[in-house]
Each structure stands twice: as structure tokens, then as C-alpha cells.
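[User]
If only I could read C-alpha cells as easily as an amino acid sequence. I have put the entry right below:
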Amino acid sequence: LNNQIIDEKGNIKDLDKDQEALISFLSNEVKPKLKRFDTLKEKLNFLQTNEYYETTFLSKYNDDQIKTIYQIAYQKKFRFSTFMGAFKFYHDYALKTRDKKFYLETYKDRLSVNALYHAQGNFEIAKGLIKSLINQDFTPATPTLLNTGKKHRGEFVSCFLLEASDSLNDIARINEFSTQLSKIGGGVSINITNLRAKGESIKGIKGVCKGVVGVCKLLDHSFRYADQMG
């Protein structure tokens, strides 16, 4: 359905198909695979006991305070406005069982965890955060929204910028740094404009430089290997 929005020339022809795709995705993909719990307390106990969630941030609040934060989120009649928004969240952000068969969170759950975690036990701040988040006054950076509260996670950092100089030693150093940064959950940007182009001279010998493509392939393989368990 979503593929029917744009014709073969790239022109938008039927935006209603996006809404049909959204409804179909939520009904046929998300709803059957969303793990159900009788109470919020049962759900949070399951997520902590099975090491999906950290325990420290939740222990800073009492049960009523945690319930209030979730209630604020769920009282807001939020719905995804596009298919891609819903697909992106459930594909990349929502916590899933380790076998990837079930979703353990909704969008409102993820926001509630962010509010509780980053308020660091201050209930009033947590209430302010969840209201701002569910009203979409602001959205945390991708690593923050994705990783917050999870037992096995990367860091809350958005990106790192590295500079590669034109030497084999530095290329190896950049490759190692990039792998380590990706492992802890950081996005990595690398400036490779200092590298010599393909065919340039090395030590006075003309036409032997391999260029930047080989370096890019090396980095690509490293990032695919150290992919934050994704």
C-alpha cells in the first residue's frame, strides 16, 4: 500500500494509501506481536527480572509515581501520522524480545522510560518531561531515545567526528577508534578529505595510490561488525 503513494515518475498520487498502510501495519504486525501484561507493575517486573530494563532508575520512584508517568503518556491520544513513522519506531526503537518475535514497548512506554530515567528520581521533573515528550515539544536525540533504560544498550551520544590524515598508521587508528565508538552506541562521522586520490604518488612513485574507496570499504566492514548488537 505504501508503495502506491508515488508513481513510477516519483510523483505523489494517493496519500490515502499511506494511512491504509499505517492502519494495516499497526493491526496486522504490531498488535498481534505486542506482549501483553495484566498490570504495569507486572510488565516492569518482567522487564527488570529478565534484564531488559535497568533497575536503578525505577527504584528511585514509588509505584504510584511510576504509574502516574505512564498514565500521563497514555492519556494523550497520540497516534502515528505516517506509516514510516510507525514502522521506524517499531523496527528500530521499540524494545523487543531477544528472539525478535514480540514487541515489549509501545511509543508511549519508550517515552515514559525516557522521562523517568533522565529525571533521576525527581518526580516533578519526570512529569514535566513526559508531558513535553508526549506533546512532541521536543524529541531526544536518536541514541538517547533508543538506549535509555535498557539493560543492554549503547550510550546516549549522538555522534563523533573523526579526522583522518594521509598515512596508513592514521587510517588504522581511525578504523580502531570508529569500531570502539560504534560499539558503545555512537554515530561516527569521518573526514577523509585529507587522503590522496586514486592514482596519486606515494614516495615519489606515480599512480600507485589506491584512493579513498578502499578505506571506505574497510570502515564499512568495521561498522557492520561492531553494529551495537543491532
Remarks:
- The first strand starts at residue 159 and ends at 163.
